[in-house]
Amino acid sequence: MLVELSVKQKFLTLCGITAAAMAASLAIGQRLIPQSILTGVVFYLISGERPSTVYASIVSLPRDIRTAIIFLKLNLCLYRYERAGATVVQIFERVVARQPNKVAFLMDDGQLTFAQVKQLADRVAAHFYAKGFRKGDTIALLMETRLEYPCIWLGLSKVGIVTALINSNLRKETLRHSITVANSKAIIVSTELAGAIAEINEQEGIKGLPVHLFRSDGAPDTASSSSSSDPLPDAEDLRLSLDSSGSSSSNVDLSAIPNDISPKDKLVYIYTSGTTGMPKAAVITNLRYTFMALGCYYMLSFRDDDIIYNSLPLYHSAGGMIGVGSVLLCGVTAALRKKFSASNFWTDCIRYKCTVAQYIGEICRFVLMTPPKPTDTQHSVRLMFGNGLRPQIWPQFVSRFNIQQIGEFYGSTEGNSNLLNIDNTMGAVGFVPNFAKAIYPVTLIRCDEETGEIIRGSDGFCIKCKAGEPGVFVGKINPKKALNSFVGYADKAASEKKVLHDVFRKGDIFFNSGDILVQDLLGNYYFKDRTGDTFRWRGENVATSEVEGVITTIVGLKDCAVYGVDIPETEGKAGMAAIVDPEGKVDLEQLAAGIRASLPAYARPLFIRVLSEVPMTTTFKLKKRDLQVDGYDLGKIQDPIYFLQSNGTYRRFTADDHETIKSGKARL
Q1: Tens digits of per-residue pLDDT, 262-296?
Q2: Of 102, 310, 500, 562, which cross-links 323 as Cys (Cβ 3.0–4.6 Å)?
Q3: Which helix or strand (DSSP H or E) is residue 544 part of?
Q4: Distance (Å) of CA 528 to CA 4, 365, 393, 429
Q5: How far is CA 668 from the centre of its chain?
């Protein structure tokens, strides 16, 4: 009598039989039965899968075995750290003890060794503990990329203070919201961004918060600055305070700080626009930060002597969690840049002797658009990793710049569903082997591609997609495992919106990524689109409701719809706003000035369409989908369209502009 095996039993049985098959094939002198075929036959017998699935398992077996070995190493490392109760700070201090004099961060002509990072972090911890801040408090950090950036939040984490990593592009209401939604009790701001805090300093939720001003080296003391030139005259000079506490860790007494932080405690907040509304503060625990940093290190086979070129903002998960985390927890070196420059990309990589570089899709496109020059192949970069490299430019990029490996990954800051392409499969964002789905329970479920609404069967449960069928990417939530947990946002209501209940059986819960992907027969996943209204531009998520709210206020509460439109040869979607103005009263100069003042560059609509009629639904909403289909096609649209210029103003969009964009030659 045959007993039906559980998925877990099948996987364990397969592992055992695979090992036996390998031994058997080695024992047969002529290797009459290749181990992959033997394993595939056994897999078919115990799983009952279709022949096509068995074929795919055989073809992908070398990749899957290699992945299984690396994945095992990663999980053993994570298990040891979790078992020991190790936090990010504690893992970092092990790295420091091993290589105190190795350079951790490089930027411009400056550098910090691992010992110097620890010394500054210790001074930050001692200073804010002495100021009365305790475990569980939140401090907002508004600062552009600089060497000290990771040291500040690392030092705060020694006390158990959660740092809210604020997007340095935010201004006014969006900035105020980001600070207050995390329940911040203080603000640390660099001198370059002090004016942004001064603009909202008297507003609700901000007024009365202590502000700590971090000066750049060589900047005048705030104490010696006149109040007329100082936007924050009452702010503490944080650099002066830290410098006065001593130049080495031996001068800092940390004995009073309790050692009561666990891996599951919050480390930082990293902000994401999500699908609606203002930025949401995604909770990053010590455990999740460790998993993300170690995951890329192990799965992409980083080397201990690697130098990573990181020109991404440090308040984002890619630059601040994966890039910086590889330094703090794995001991590699990173070269930072304040602001990305396409023309200096390879020059910087050569200067710092980088062997690995990070990207987002736009970075690759901008670098590819630069004129060819000798530095294109004079660098030592063997691996580039990131997300958003378009399949259309992938082969051209790796060929021109002689990149041996692309590590394209997929995932959200807050999500539990992450993928990684480790075998150079062009266009893929990662894969999950067929036999490993019980260990890493992610899948695609059917949805309405236009609305993103989940489609359920007659039994009330969701329907898994077949190979080649687009669907929403979801991951099963297991709070007991770092790999599958979902901590969510600071706002619990926002967290619940990302959770699906009763997906395949009563009581199960899944994280809804809100993204539409496609999986092929070999287990490779390919990104297709984002559901809902949010779109991605310049490597940032743009929440349309936020932009609509700003524009509606500027134009006197007129109806406005914001949506993303495709631009040929460009990653993401550009913003387009449709404003209902039958009387022709919209002042474009005033609109442009208001947009510049209230929205970061990536959220400013590239196109403005002025509507003479009101295309409403029966629920009195603008027909956004119809507007999105029209896009900026002058052949379809009679309404005037205006085009964003480099100086932040709008001018009339012409047929020549349209042709330039269609040809992929526009520099946007």
Answers
A1: 999 999 999 986 434 588 999 999 999 999 999 99
A2: 310
A3: helix 544-554
A4: 36, 18, 16, 10
A5: 22
Is residue 422 located within the same domain as residue 550?
A: no
Q: What DSSP string runs through 226-265?
A: -TTT-S-TTSEEHHHHHHHT-SSGGG---TTS-----TTS
pLDDT in tens, 439-469: 889 999 999 865 678 999 999 999 999 999 9
Asked if residue 123 lies in contact with residue 252, where contact means CB atoms within 8 angstroms, the answer is: yes
Question: Can you read off the two tokens belonging to residue 105?
Answer: 């961060």
| pLDDT for res 123 | 95
| Judgement on whether residues 476 and 587 belong to the same structural domain of the protein | no
65 located within any domain: no
- Say which residue the tokens 């379809």 belong to: 636
pLDDT beneath 50, residues of the chain: 1-33, 36-37, 43-47, 218-228, 247-250, 274-276, 617-620
Asked whether residue 367 is domain-assigned, the answer is no
Look at residue 407 and give its three-state secondary structure: strand
- Looking at the fold, whether 240 and 315 belong to one and the same domain comes out as yes
> Do 519 and 544 share a domain, yes or no?
no
SS3 110: strand
CATH number at residue 525: 2.30.38.10
* Residue 123, domain CATH: 3.40.50.12780
- Is 226 inside a domain boundary? no
Q: What CATH number corresponds to the domain at position 576?
A: 3.30.300.30
Bridge-based pairing of strands 110-113 and 211-214 is unpaired
Total tally of structural domains belonging to the chain: 4
Residue 23 pLDDT: 44
Cβ contact 516:449 at 8 Å: yes
Residue 27 shares a structural domain with residue 102: no
First-last CA distance in the chain? 67
Domain that holds residue 541: 535-663
Identify whether the C-beta of residue 503 lies closer than 8 Å to the C-beta of residue 474: yes
DSSP codes joined into one string, 413-475: SS-S--EE--S--TT--EE--GGGTTTS-EEEE-B-TTT-PBPB-TTSSB-BPPTT--EEEEE
SS3 content of the chain, % helix, strand, coil (to 5): 35, 20, 45
d(CA 99, CA 117): 12
